[in-house]
Design a protein that fits this description.
binds NADP nicotinamide-adenine-dinucleotide phosphate; Rossmann fold; eight-stranded mixed beta sheet; 16 strands; alpha/beta; Dihydrodipicolinate Reductase, domain 2; six-stranded parallel beta sheet; globular; 8 helices
Length: 328
């Protein structure tokens, strides 16, 4: 089998390389792509060193699967070329997520919609993915009607530049003032919480917030799901956390809901300690805690969910999908 990793030098790409070593046998042939800046760089996989190729039309051969994490523009330009050359493409960008003919897949939730003919598959937004993992088993049990998610997004969700900015600002110590504008974000991110993640749209919501709305409806297949999202960016390196208030059609039993969550593969309910982004970092599981019955209704539950945005939010889900495709 041949696998191409597009964006191999990036944060997500590096995690994809690590996970491919765990998920696939060592006889898989890999090709790494990145920008011209990284062409010629050597990256290790399964004890061998591979030379990174520049992503351009001339370099694209035939692969079984291509895993894309090089930004939406590259996906739009190159995904079809890989498909025309016989490859499945699993894309981490938002380029095709809301395209009706493209399945938006969270492995563990809806991978069964992938068929041999589904050549292009979109990986959902990292914050949505963690939340949907917790919502799916609860929806199956109680029938989900509405959610109010409030997300705390880590800087690695913005790629390497987000991390570099946080590191630089931490080094500035007390010299970092609220009017600092040299960083990656609209406001300083070290020692801070910015009450906006992503770019503001005309409707006053950010694109990250609208991903919560559109993508959770598509993944859970609930067209009329009410979603009232708010997303903040926090000075955390990795691990997106979300407080969510969820309304269901049926009455909720908290003990049963915890059992339902714990029985769902890929989700862990923590009742003895509080899972934070640091706990989630490096873990494949989505961690849930603080499940409480609503104060106003026994059809509402409030909870906290946190997951590694680079793993279940991106690379892990992509590699799980790739493994699934390889077994179709
Ligand atoms: N970070 C997350 O939590 C997360 C979660 C879900 C989805 N995603 C998506 O995954 C993608 C990558 O994110 P990331 O966090 O890994 O970003 P990143 O660390 O900034 O890495 C970007 C990657 O894209 C490559 N690239 C950039 N321009 C290119 C070009 N013109 N041609 C070929 N390759 C090019 C880079 O190669 P060079 O090193 O050569 O520049 C690098 O490998 C984005 O679409 C992002 O939206 C990220």
């Amino acid at each position: 089998m041949k696998i191409a990793i597009v964006g191999a030098t990036g944060l997500v790409g590096q995690n994809i390389i690590n996970l491919c070593q765990q998920f696939f046998s060592s006889d898989v042939e890999y090709t790494f792509f990145a920008s011209s800046k990284s062409a010629g760089k050597k990256l290790k996989i399964n004890q061998s060193e591979l030379t990174v190729k520049e992503l351009n039309k001339e370099n694209i051969e035939s692969y079984n699967i291509a895993l894309f994490s090089a930004g939406g523009e590259r996906s739009k330009e190159f995904a079809n070329i890989f498909i025309e050359n016989g490859s499945f493409v699993v894309d981490n960008s938002s380029a095709f997520r809301m395209n009706e003919s493209v399945p938006l897949v969270v492995y563990g939730v809806n991978q069964n919609i992938i068929t041999k003919d589904t050549k292009l598959i979109s990986n959902p937004n990292c914050t949505t993915m963690g939340l949907v993992m917790a919502l799916k088993p609860l929806h199956d049990q109680y029938n989900l009607k509405a959610i109010t998610p409030v997300a705390y997004q880590a800087v690695s969700g913005s790629g390497s530049n987000g991390i570099l900015s946080l590191q630089r600002e931490i080094e500035m110590g007390d010299n970092l003032k609220p009017d600092y504008t040299e960083g990656y974000y609209t406001n300083p991110i070290a020692r801070n919480v910015i009450p906006l993640a992503g770019n503001l749209l005309d409707n006053g919501y950010s694109d990250e917030e609208m991903k919560f709305c559109n993508e959770s409806r598509k993944i859970l297949d609930i067209d009329d799901l009410i979603v009232e999202p708010s997303n903040a960016r926090v000075g955390v390196v990795t691990g997106h956390g979300t407080f969510c208030s969820a309304v269901f059609e049926n009455t909720i039993d908290i003990k049963e809901a915890i059992n339902v969550l714990n029985s769902f593969e890929g989700v862990e309910y923590w009742d003895k300690s509080l899972p934070t982004p640091l706990d989630a970092e490096g873990r494949n599981e989505v961690l849930v805690s603080r499940l409480r019955k609503g104060l106003s209704s026994n059809k509402i539950i409030n909870f906290w969910v946190v997951s590694d945005n680079l793993l279940k939010g991106a690379a892990l889900n992509a590699v799980q999908i790739a493994k699934h495709i390889s077994e179709l």
